[in-house]
Amino acid sequence: MKVVDAMQLERMSDLAREVPRRRTHFNLHDELTDPVQRVVIALEPGTYVRPHRHGDGVWELFVVLEGACAVLIFDDEGSVIQRVQLIPGGARLAQVPVGAWHSVVALAPGTIAFEVKPGPYVPATDKNFAAWAPQEGEPGTSAMVRWLENAAVGERFS
Q1: Domain range spanning residue 52?
Q2: Which of 104, 114, 96, 89 is nearest to 151 (CA)?
Q3: Could you tell me if residue 140 is left (phi over 0), alpha (psi between -120 and 50 degrees) or otherwise beta?
Q4: DSSP character for 119?
Q5: CATH code, 20
Q6: How much is the pLDDT for 125?
Q7: Would you say residue 122 has pLDDT above 90?
Q8: CA-to-CA distance for 145 and 16, rounded, in angstroms?
Q9: Disulfide-capable partner of 65 in 33, 112, 127, 137 (CB 3.0 to 4.6 Å)?
């Protein structure tokens, strides 16, 4: 049995604050080939989850366990068409539909999310990144993160 306790979540958050990407993962599935991928993710403000979509019937389910994050859905040109803030005491779960451009942004220190999606996970083909969003580490990444933190429905990053 795999158990994730408060001490492990705290260690994950501590590590996420220290690493350059500002996030860390703990897989609950045993293999990347598992038919259901289950991941605990510690996200700190400033982490960049480049907008992307998955193919082959892949949806994603996000559940916030600690802190706060927002899940954003975009149209093909990068305009926000849906935004939900996940926070204990409010909305706690959001499922991203198959084929939707999306991103997740941390809104509070110590944010912990649980992600579930169909597998297998094949890194080379898992994500199709949005051309209208900067690559991780490129100029404009910090501005994109700040925009994601507050982007409203109908807005588009420029």
Answers
A1: 6-119
A2: 104
A3: left
A4: S
A5: 2.60.120.10
A6: 83
A7: no
A8: 16
A9: 112
**pLDDT surpasses 90 at 72:** yes
| Long-range pairs of 30-35 with CB within 8 A, sequence gap ≥ 24 | 31/120, 32/119, 32/120, 32/121, 32/122, 32/123, 33/119, 33/120, 33/121, 34/119, 34/120, 34/121, 35/118, 35/119, 35/120
CB-based burial of residue 84 (10 Å sphere; 0-12 exposed, 13-18 middle, 19+ buried)?
middle
Establish if 132 belongs to a structural domain: no
Q: What is the pLDDT of residue 31?
A: 93
Confidence of residue 124 (pLDDT cuts 50, 70, 90): confident
pLDDT of res. 84:
98
Q: How many domains does the chain have?
A: 1
User: What does the pLDDT look like over 76-102, one tens digit per residue?
Assistant: 999 999 999 999 899 999 999 999 999
Pairwise CA distance, residues 51 & 48, whole Å? 9
Place 45 in a pLDDT band, splitting at 50, 70 and 90: very high
Phi, then psi, of 150 in degrees rounded to 5: -125, 0
